[in-house]
């Protein structure tokens, strides 16, 4: 073990030093992957020296998500205080389904859930769990909504014609989860968004009324706190009133930006959150915890037991159910994804988490002001979003993003809204500073100037 740890420490140090010089890994086209790197597996394995060389090649050619050149996905950065917990969770290798298997680590997850429920504004009846990703957390919310609407579903299956409602700008997992749940993709009503990318409440209410008249049972409204492209916040408070009127479960998918829960400055973006039935967000996004760390919170914890508890004498042999987290989880084997969040939160406090969230909005303001004040840029985004959407000199976003990637210059993605396609810069890494954001634009502009011939036909 000591030799392995020594090898790990040396390799990580070399990687971190190289990231400073080369923030973007050398581009490796997918069709050249297996010819470039030795990924084949053999009967006898390789010697230690050969393995170390091959492993370094693999690590150094892998996408670098913690650098000043990565703005591509809704996560980024490397927080050492959280990494500590992630590494220790791997070394300890506990499974979080029972207290017997995980011991005090169960308390770590329970404390996180309880604290977050308090910030939502719920009482002691609330609860939650940590899931493996935002899509799974959303799926669990949908299952609880489905089971709440028809208590015999778990034994008899889905028999009623059920419907789900979500913004046309929401995450693709809503439709996917509807198919998994037995509700069906065709029964997902995608409600149009307003000019700022927010679900239109008037159209939501019309859709619910129409479905009820046609014999459907509305079971879930999925509101979004930070849509994937524009970073928009659906009007939760107004939506909650409609859900209460029609007795429909309200889930808020805050995978992207639900962490504003911990910011006094930005919590207003999720006004009404205390009225929802369930709420999920990813600590591995705005809170800079290593992947994955997705939290599902529910106003009444009994719904977790109703939908996910199942007896298993070979597993649940000791302690009370409240300490056997497998009783409220979709999974059986359950990695300790709580510890990395706890090590971060314990060291920096809630105030430190709040500073991380606020920092990302400050960086977004820097980017928004830059593109808004430069005539070479066309702006598609708005205030109160950490997704800055723009085009540069009328160059097609898809082309520019692809060339920046293939030339190992910057990693940034593109998105679309109302048939307009644009670059989407996400200020998700709180370890960036103002100059890193400005350097992104300087690098992009210099790249276009240097490779002008590549863009002549498109401009």
Please describe what this structure looks like.
By secondary structure, this protein is an alpha/beta fold. The protein folds into two domains: 2-67; 84-343, Aspartate Aminotransferase, domain 2, CATH 3.40.640.10. The chain has helices at residues 2-21, 33-36, 48-60, 80-92, 99-102, 105-120, 134-149, 153-156, 173-181, 201-213, 236-246, 302-308, 338-372, 397-406, 434-450, 452-455, and strands at 70-71, 127-131, 162-167, 188-191, 217-224, 249-254, 278-282, 294-298, 377-379, 387-392, 411-417, 420-426. The strands form two sheets. It has a seven-stranded mixed β-sheet with strand order 2-8-7-6-5-3-4, with helices on both faces. Strands 1-11-12-10-9 form a five-stranded mixed β-sheet. The longest helix has 35 residues, at 338-372. The relative contact order is 0.13. The model has no long low-confidence stretch (mean pLDDT 95).
Concise summary:
This protein has 459 residues and is α/β, with parallel strands linked by helices. Helix content is 43%, strand content 14%. Helix 7 packs across helix 9 (173-181).
Shape call: globular
Specify the helix fraction band: 40-55%
| SSE pattern, N- to C-terminal | HHHEHHHEHHEHEHEHEEEHHEEHEEHH
CATH-assigned fold name of the largest domain: Aspartate Aminotransferase, domain 2
| N-to-C CA distance | 57 Å
Radius of gyration from the alpha-carbon trace, in angstroms: 23 Å
Which superfamily, in CATH terms, is the homologous superfamily of the largest domain? Type I PLP-dependent aspartate aminotransferase-like (Major domain)
Question: How would you write the strand order of the largest sheet?
Answer: 2-8-7-6-5-3-4
Low-pLDDT ranges:
none
For this structure, the quaternary state is: single chain
**Which secondary-structure class do the elements indicate?**
alpha/beta
Compute the number of strand runs. 12
CATH architecture of the largest domain: 3-Layer(aba) Sandwich
Largest sheet: 7 strands, mixed
Task: Quote the beta fraction.
Answer: 5-15%
Query: Which CATH top level class of the largest domain fits?
Result: Alpha Beta
Tally of individual helices = 16
Mean pLDDT: 95
Instruction: Give the domain tally.
Output: 2
